[in-house]
Known about the structure:
two-stranded antiparallel ribbon
Amino acid sequence: MGEQNESREKLIACAKKEFLEKGFAKASLRKMTSDAGLTTGAVYFFFKDKDGLFGAVVEEPLNNIIAVLKKHFAEDAEEDLSTYVHHDGDHDDFTEELVNVMYADYDAMMILLEKSAGSRYEGVVDSMIAMLDSYYEQFAQRYADIFQGKRVNRYMMHWMSHMQIGSFVHLLEHEPDREKALKKIKPVMNFLIKGWMDYILEDDV
């Protein structure tokens, strides 16, 4: 069992290097397995197929991000929106936690964002936007219920979901250093939160 685990982890490491260099579609299973000292049969034994091997590289880092977001959503659900007043830095702890998990495996994140075409993870950014939309559907309605004569601006809600996910995608693609990334994204988060609160509602006419 120990030898099998070692072979599996070695194959994942070699696959990560190949996917990072060539992307999912052009990556060679023969090259990965050769570099790992294995045969191509190892891919099918451990992962069923190339897509499964790609998932072994990117799924854990992606799930870590989703876990941080869901934790934040749960905390927001307990917030009393009728008394909440935003102050810069309110979300610094969440921002730092999110950046930490994003940068814990930077190469896997870049593979996921830039090298996943042809895999089942190809639409990951759209999936993350859809997840935010689903959450905001309820959160924004709670906010609207506080104000008489207001309703959720659903176009703005969807646009803000795009902006929020896009901000972190842009960060990853343009700033590989975690500490610099954290410094850059904190004011962006303040801006996004203020914008959300100012424009997520519209007159109910």
